[in-house]
Amino acid sequence: MCSRLILALVLLAVGLPVAAAAAQDFCMDASSFDPARVYRTNCYWPATEAASTAYCSTWQYQGADSDCMWEVNEGLGENTHVYVYYPGMSSQLCAAQHSSSTLHTETCAMWAGGFVKRGLTSYLGLTRMESYIHRPFNDTCCGVYGAKTPVALPPSPPPSAPPPRRGFPFMLLLQIPLILIVPPLCILKIRMKKRHAERAAERARQLAAAQSSTGMQPVAQAYAQPQPMAVTCPPGVKPGDSLVVTMGGQQVTVQVPEGVTPGGMFMVQPPQQQAVAVAVATAIPA
After folding, report:
1. How far from the centroid of its chain's Cα atoms is residue 253's Cα?
2. What is the mean pLDDT of residues 46-63?
3. Exposed e or buried b for every residue in 137-154, given b needs 16+ CB within 10 A?
4. What are the structural domain ranges in the chain?
5. What proportion of the chain, given as a percentage, has pLDDT over 70?
């Protein structure tokens, strides 16, 4: 985050040149480019898809470079769209299409500017995939009449260097306080994070050393309670005698309960946590 902020401040203080291409430069021949020439006229009126389909099925094409279709445009909604390329249609002809029609005229300058915004540098970038665009545009606006593909022209000269900036750099003056303050704050934040991590690691080492020196064990392990178990009375042992059995890894002393004979089984309850482990035994009913 700090590095991005510093980079943004430096770029803002120094300033970057912004290249803007003129519309006539797109055709690479200003003498054949007329920015005010009509490239296409569009006649719109509100209509549903069904109504547009019905109208366009009977619409008379007005030349090879014209069409009728249904569209959904932002701000216009559903509409019927009739367009005619150069020389275009008149306002009277558009009004004759529908009583609510609106005529919109697009010039060569408008389309050339749109191509530049899309990242194209000249009409040579209009490929066969966009033949429906580059053929009428090249014919109408760039003077490459009848060309099916762009004609290779000499490359344009490289752009001249931007003029030197003049005057006092007020923007740099405004950025000086931020440039002087932001880097130290970033360094201080990094150091604080490092110190916090070192202190946490030291506390963890001290806790581990204390546990190893005192023999401390986790609570769950120290107080693990064994489960009751069944014990078979061995031969030669009678009620009241004591036995040593192992429960949960711990040896406990068990007294054989009354009514248990050799070979019989009795239940042994685990002892409670106390200094001497003594289990409680109960006879299992036969």
Report:
1. 68
2. 85
3. bbbbbbebeeeeebeeee
4. 16-142, 229-283
5. 68
- How far CA 123 is from CA of 68, 75, 130, 146, 165, in Å, comes to 26, 30, 11, 14, 32
Can you tell me whether residue 39 is helix, strand or coil?
strand
For range 242-262, the mean pLDDT: 85
Strand partners, 45: 80
Give 234's contacts (C-beta < 8 A, 6+ positions apart): 243, 262
Residue 30 near residue 24 (C-beta atoms within 8 A): yes
Given a cut of 50, is residue 127 above it in pLDDT?
yes
Q: Which residue has the higher pLDDT, 211 or 105?
A: 105
- 59-107 pLDDT per residue, tens: 877 665 788 988 887 777 899 888 888 888 888 988 988 888 999 999 8
H helical segments located in 138-253: 170-214, 219-222
CATH 2.40.160 fits 16-142, yes or no: no
Closest CA to 271 of 219, 220, 229: 229
Q: What is the dihedral of CA 215, 218, 223, 228, to 10 degrees?
A: -110
CA dist 253 to 241, 269, 284, Å? 10, 11, 18
